Amino acid sequence: MICNNIGINEKGHITFAGQDVCDLAQKYGTPLYLMDEDKIRENCRTYKAAMDACFASALPVYASKAACFKRMYEIIAEEGFGIDVVSVGEIYTAMKAGMSLENAYFHSNNKTDFDIEFAIENGVGYFVVDNEEELYAIERINDGNAQKQKVLLRLTPGIDTHTYEAVNTGKVDSKFGSAIETGQAEEITRLALGMQNIALAGFHCHIGSQVFDSDTFLRGSEIMLSFAAQMKQKYGYEMQELSLGGGYGVRYTEADPEIDIAANIRQVSECVKADCAKLGLQEPKLIMEPGRSIVADAGMTLYSVGTIKQIPGYKNYVSIDGGMTDNPRYALYGSEYTLFVANKAKEAADFTADVVGRCCESDDIIQPEVRLPKPVRGDIIAVCTTGAYNYSMASNYNRVARPPVVMLCGGKSYQAVKRESLDDLIANDL
Residue 147 has what DSSP assignment? Predict the structure, then answer.
């Protein structure tokens, strides 16, 4: 199996977090998001232990966009993480979950004045500043406050990763950040250092997502530390914090490699320490922003099979009761997944079909050309590794209600997010 929290029981049913998913589908209905709370905590502790052991000062920061709801923030806070937030909505959700915003890092390439005011008023610890206009806006809006607003400057180190083009964020021409190569990074640093209402805490970069080794992080840290040394020499500024972003990959299929995150973090720490010594820098507080690698393999989505359509000489379709409304990632990225007919897990996979959704879109596909036991109406399809960017990207397209999120913990289950009702769909209609 692609993850150690997936199995097959004596009934020939798929299990997740030790529980029969067919029983869960019957109890809660489908479509259904399952989240393995124990796996989330295990993943958090892997990062926390490795970073604490490898750096003099470090903080893992959960990238909220991967999966954001109140219960997630409660778990993250209990595990000693900070949070990376990208909107007022994520900030508000964290607040309502009772999470301190002292270690909240507010991202976004286009923060409105309302966003900035809301974040400052509610005590967001850090802004990750994307551009000069944002810097000026924070300086203006924070005028008159006794406390300077701490910021990191988001820089682009010019690294092209081997990942989906849509999630490649470290290139010179990325929509995010200020490029080192063009001189814009130095200019925004100079501006920040001259402002009265801003305290420059350090620098940030995020190079990409689905990275399976440390090479990208090693190259990124080397470039960022070299830039920091230049700023120290030129402006006398000593960087306090360095964020290398997130991006460690997860296994969606058997073809994806397994990754030892703790070993990779040790490699990064050795590189950072060596470069700091060589460049005459004090070792900064090291920030990493895992999101996908915290929640992806903690998630599974269940669907009920509806129509099976066979077109002789062409192809077959298996239609499910969800689709791009609860998982748009294939439509966006061509993302690969591992699928099972959950109630026929021991039967031969002798049928090939596109597993497709119910929306009125030709591209509403969960996965094409899947080998699986031939399903019939009412069978349960389990899609693995759906904890990241599935619930958070879900929509009401075609006026379809979003599924609930059910947490699995210690052999028990409970709802963290309720299923949307028809009344929920029209709640904001006037």
Answer: S
pLDDT tens digits along 281-302:
999 999 999 999 999 999 999 9
pLDDT reading at 398 higher than 80: yes
**Cis, peptide link before residue 31, omega less than 30° from 0:** yes
The H or E element containing residue 264 is: helix 261-279
Contacts of 276 (CB under 8 A, 6+ apart): 225, 282, 283, 284
Q: Is the dihedral of CA 183, 184, 186, 190 positive or negative?
A: positive
**Arithmetic mean of pLDDT, 366-391:** 97
The residues annotated as belonging to the active site are 360
Mean pLDDT on 402-406: 98
Report the SS3 class of residue 16.
Answer: strand
Under a CB-based contact definition with an 8 Å cutoff, are residues 35 and 21 in contact? no
213 exposure class (CB count in 10 Å sphere: 0-12, 13-18, 19+): middle
Spatial CB neighbours of 304, under 8 Å, sequence gap ≥ 6:
25, 30, 31, 320, 321, 378, 379, 380, 381
**Which H/E stretch holds residue 34?**
strand 32-36
Q: How far is Cα 367 from Cα 335, in angstroms, rounded to an integer? A: 8
What mean pLDDT comes out for the span 189-214? Answer: 91
Backbone angles phi, psi at 155, to 5 degrees: -115, 150
The neighbouring-strand residues paired with 310 are: 316
Contacts of 251 (CB under 8 A, 6+ apart): 2, 3, 257, 258, 297, 385
Instruction: End-to-end CA distance of the chain: give it in Å, rounded.
Output: 49
Taking alpha carbons only, the member of 388, 154, 409 closest to residue 292 is 388
* pTM, two decimal places: 0.94
